[in-house]
């Protein structure tokens, strides 16, 4: 029975990794038609409608005593999402995905700084490897004309790690998983509307609506698959398998745009992936 659950959880995480990589593909293609702010807005709006509709159908309660945690997580997570989409639009897909996946490394670091947690030696070694990987990965980016996107990608990973602290606290308080995802999408959608009041909306046409639906559908399904993986499988195994998103992003980048990765880039990605795995062993 345990083996079956392990296989099922692993399978769901592989599905989630494929969907997250496809989301990056749709974001990069959609960047030709929409700004990063618009892409995030449409992505979260589809999530609000999907999750909200499902909750209404099941007659779930939307009220929560943990609104303050949701607001904090929502603002931090929305900022991370904006930076991540900008990085995806301006960097090779594999590079942007890897920078986003520095979040476990920053989560471990923030747990020490903010929560005064003590990390085992292997987690500390993972942090050192991770920062070495970041420097190696960003070295060519910072010397080129896309250095700003590289720094935003790294900042996205930092904010995502900070956001996960709030998610962990919401879980400890017993908050339902669907409400955690729903309120994040709702707050992000409202934030998108506020920011878009300062920008120009690009028209949604038959030529580009498929890209928006692709972003929203893959992101929502990926989150559901990831949640399922952590629920039915082993958390550590699921967390390690989540790094397959980087692998799938490499393949998509090579197939669609012919992105060529140098030996240094591959080594840097490997260091960051190993860092995340070690940092999660607590």
UniProtKB/TrEMBL annotation:
NAD among keywords: no
Regions that span the bilayer: 12-34, 40-57, 69-88, 94-115, 122-140, 146-165, 177-197, 209-226, 238-257, 263-280
A Pfam family matched in the record: EamA
Stretches assigned to the EamA domain: 9-138
Subcellular localization, as worded in the UniProt entry: Membrane
Membrane topology reported for the UniProt record: Multi-pass membrane protein
Superkingdom of the source species: Bacteria
One Gene Ontology CC term in the entry: membrane
Keyword entries, A-Z: Membrane, Transmembrane, Transmembrane helix
Protein name in the entry: EamA family transporter
Organism: Chromobacterium violaceum
